Amino acid sequence: MKVLVRVVGTLLLVGLILTRVNLGQIMDSFATLRPTYWVAAFLLLFFTQVLSCQRWKVLATAVGFGGTFYEYLKFFFIGMFFNLALPTSVGGDVVRAWYLAYKMKDDLVENRRSKAVLTVFADRFSGVLVLVAIAVIATIFSPVELPVWVKGSVMSVGLGAIGSLAMLPLIAKFSVRFPKILVVLKSAKLCFGNVKVLVLTTAMSVWVQLSSVSIMMLIGLGMDLPIPLPFYFVMVPLVTLMTMLPISLGGMGLREGATVLMLTPLAIAPASAVALSVLCFSVYVAVGMIGIFFYLGSRGSASSSDMKDVQLEGEISGSTELEESHDGSAIRNNTDQRRAG
């Protein structure tokens, strides 16, 4: 049912955009991009994803997982590929958690599945907080006059994030009966409970989010769009946050619509805004496709029978919410049998 809602939402959003934008004009805008800028964006994203993988490894190590950096890199890129291949926006996160829990060459960690889910959630949690912080700082110090609704949106999100963090101790008292909230609290504790982990993950998250801004900036410069560079630091976080709404497949339609909306005050043609959004997304698709080589070449890749035992479900809430599987007991039994064998 959730997938059906997303499919319908995607079709409606894309249809709405196409009623405002001429497809031929979008194609003409594609042709304005100088290829060297796209290649630079691709390389920047690739190295940024490698750093993101290291951030995930830091969080996984903090809860007791071992493993080499190459193993995390392999699982991370496989997750990126499944983010593209699966209909939900957290499909890759589910796959990442599954690989960490059941394919990592380390059998000493207790409650492997819960901890694996927690590391993925904490990874997203850290990134979203930094994303919101960048948007707020950019809005306050923006040399470009921003529309009132942009300022209001950013500040509302920022205040919401601060309020949520401040209320965590109070929420903890009522979280026992709410597993999803409990995951958020454990994630926050993992991010903030260890100074070394906090410093490392925050520094990496800052780099990752600034790189996301720089990727769109490179594409915009390559298209010669008259967008003031400081404006990207406001626009990219807001567009990213809007694509987290669970009403389309992978943010399709939302991403393009949000970009058009943000660039309207700058008198950027809707066709150019849509082309900018699609070209940026193409960079993420190209990097994500690298994961298929890790997946096909991995001896530890999941067999179809293994994957049938796993039904991790999730939704993005601010970042990512992952639920316990309905077949959790079956998974544990199957895993114990394999280890016993």
- Structural class, by secondary structure, is mainly alpha
Largest sheet: 2 strands, antiparallel
Order of secondary-structure elements: HHHHHHHHHHHHHHHEEH
What is the average of the pLDDT values?
78
How many distinct folded domains?
1
Oligomeric category: single chain
The end-to-end distance, rounded to whole angstroms, is: 39 Å
Quantity of strands, as a count: 2
Give the uncertain stretches in residue-range form.
Answer: 299-341
Q: Strand content of the residues, in percent?
A: under 5%
**Shape, per Cα inertia axes:** globular
- Rg is 20 Å
**Percent helix:** over 70%
If strands are numbered along the chain, what order do they take across the biggest sheet?
A: 1-2
Helical stretch count? 16
Summarize the structure.
Helices cover 73% and strands 2% of the residues. By secondary structure, it is mainly alpha-helical.
Task: Explain what the structure shows.
This protein is mostly helical and 341 residues long. The chain has one domain. The chain is 73% helix and 2% strand. The chain is built from 16 helices and two strands. It has a two-stranded antiparallel sheet. α3 crosses α4, α3 packs across α6 and α5 packs across α6. It is globular, with a radius of gyration of 20 Å.
